Amino acid sequence: MKCSDFIAEFLKNQGIGIVFDFTGGMIANLEDSISRLSGIDCLPARHEQAAGFAAEGYARSGKNFGVAISTSGPGATNMVTAIGSCYFDSTPALFITGQVNSKDLRNSKNVRQNGFQELDVVEMVKGITKYAKLILEPNEILYELEKSLFLMKTDRPGPVLLDIPFNVQTAEIEPATLKRFIDSEEYKEKDKERDRLCSDFKKLSQLLEESKAPVVLFGNGIKISKTKDKLKNFLNKNSLPSVSSLLGLGEIAIEQNNYSGFIGTYGNRSANIVLANADLIIVLGSRLDLRQTGNPNLFATQAKIFHVDIDGFSKKDDFKDYFFINTDLNIFFDSLDNLEIKIKTKWLDFIKSVEENFNDKYSEEDGYCNPNLFFSNFSKAVSENSIIVADVGQNQMWLAQSWKIKEGQNLMFSGGMGAMGFSLPASIGAYCGGKTRPVYAFMGDGGFQVNIQELETVKLNNLAIKIFVLNNNSLGMVREFQDQYFDKNYQSTVIGYSCPNIKKIAGAYDIKYFKIKKSTGFNLYNKIINFQGPAIIEVELSPQSTLRPKVVYGESIENQAPFLDDEKKKMLRILKEKFLR
After folding, report:
1. The model's pTM
2. pLDDT, tens digit, 9 for 90 and up, residues 423-433
3. Is residue 96 within 8 Å of 114, Cβ to Cβ?
4. Nearest by Cα to 135 from 158, 160, 108, 117
């Protein structure tokens, strides 16, 4: 059996129906094998980065991992950003790169290159993969595939990469004689390592008994561990209030009791105030990075922190009264069956008053659509089974601040990598992985242009994705930095930057075009939602549109700009004295 045929059959047997690719000579064998096998196919992107993001979207929308393949050299390097995105956001994905024939590989690191488009991609991605391997022996293929998938899914998930030379792909192998990783001593040793995970949570019970104002901060770990229902049970059983990180958004519907929204630099003001006034923060599957904490010296100064994460390296050393548990969230929740603590009603009353009085109000902006109002209103019209994919920049934070999350929705953000151009190709993968679920991709005019070529992928495959471009004719998030720190010198955000005519772009790709000028266009929203094919929707924003609230560098998370006026400060003091003293 040809080795590339074996790889294709292996992927099919893992439940993979679509492999995302951009063709090239060193991967042609695998593409040929996949295309000839019933039940699995290639979906060609127009760029390897886009193929990688599509694999990420596929994994995050369904129950399986994603797969992207590319040729050697520039094909491999073009996928690196997507590999990093999967690594930072803990997305299980298999990346396969073709490589030159084994005999053409350089025989010394002092030699820059031997074969045409030869590149040591394995060495390049070791820091952003859970496992990367150059396969030189065809008979190792099953062992390496099984090992890659095991490591990809074990503990904190992430991407793996296999680099396979052309001659290895074409080699004849005998499947029945192949060595297996699952039967190996290496597998047995790695499987035992999971027994180290802690399951002693007596400290949490003690902390909750002592606490007058606890809150749960949950993050991407809830999605990864698929413990949403267990989280809800834990919260409801103990009447615990909660907030989420950016990547935790979507796990709890906005209307469910005691959920205050997402926290951090661009978080909901009420959620940040709640977190800042808690005396116990239970952190579940979140990293507590700088975008969440603001100035770490001013974060949770009056609170004890109980932190649960499967990644032992997520432990923080700069917080006092800090307790870290390295374990799987499934183990954590399963160990809490007998825990039942009723939270003091004064704390819940404080939270309710904060939510009623301290969330920012928004209005239309000089004839332009207000982005926060747009996301708030449009989200009310979107169905519960929808997949929502945001790009990076202002659009991402406006959506996070104002989207009214419904039960069953899947929100996707590029978190750690923060790559512009993420949402269009990721929505392609999400559409393929989500089967019949409606998919909405949101991006700014800058992110739209980064992977604009994937409009042809959408059109050619008739993917009924609704593509929203929030157009303020600038690279708005950096433009805001320039407002604050560079005396309004808009170099490369306005100066030297422009956005093409989006309506003409839609026409060039033969995709239906809509334009939104007001946030209250409910009839238009329903028309867009009910349109059967792909569509590009331009949302016209003011060139001066800004993000608010936001934490200014060096400030604590509850002290967001625009800062509270004297009347609001006085009201907050009164609420604290009434409910928290």
Report:
1. 0.94
2. 999 999 999 99
3. no
4. 160
* ∠ CA 334-335-341, rounded to 5°: 105
pLDDT at 194: 56
Just give the CATH number of 197-357.
3.40.50.1220
Looking at the chain, the number of H-run helices and the number of E-run strands are 25, 18
Give 198's pLDDT tier (boundaries 50, 70, 90): low
| Alpha carbon distances (Å) from 424 to 417, 478, 497 | 16, 21, 21
Q: What is the DSSP letter of 420?
A: T
State how far the Cα of 366 lies from the Cα of 360, in Å rounded to an integer.
18
Beta strand extents in 374-525 (DSSP E only):
387-390, 410-412, 439-444, 466-471, 512-516
User: Angle at Cα 370 formed by Cα 369 and Cα 371, nearest 5°?
Assistant: 105
Phi, psi of 200 (to 5 degrees): -105, 110
d(C-alpha 46, C-alpha 42), whole Å:
13
What's the pLDDT score for residue 518? 87
Q: Residues 413, 423: contact at Cβ < 8 Å?
A: no
| Whether pLDDT at 43 is above 80 | yes
As a whole number, the mean pLDDT across the chain is: 93
Tens digit of each residue's pLDDT (9 = 90 or more) over 333-346: 988 877 878 777 89
pLDDT digits (tens, 9 = 90+) for 96-151: 999 999 888 888 888 888 888 889 999 999 999 999 999 999 999 999 999 999 99
Q: What per-residue confidence (pLDDT) applies to 196?
A: 52
Residues of the chain with CATH 3.40.50.970: 3-195, 371-540
β-bridge mates for residue 539, sequence order: 470, 516
* CATH superfamily label, 3-195: Thiamin diphosphate (ThDP)-binding fold, Pyr/PP domains (3.40.50.970)
Four-CA torsion 392, 67, 17, 383, nearest 10 degrees: -20
Q: φ and ψ at 325, to 5 degrees?
A: -120, 120
For every residue of 163-178, DSSP letters joined together read EEEHHHHH-B--GGG-
Domain topology for 371-540? Rossmann fold (3.40.50)
What is the reported pLDDT for 118?
Answer: 87
CA 466/CA 445 separation, integer angstroms: 15
E strand residue ranges, 450-521: 466-471, 512-516
CA gyration radius for the chain?
25
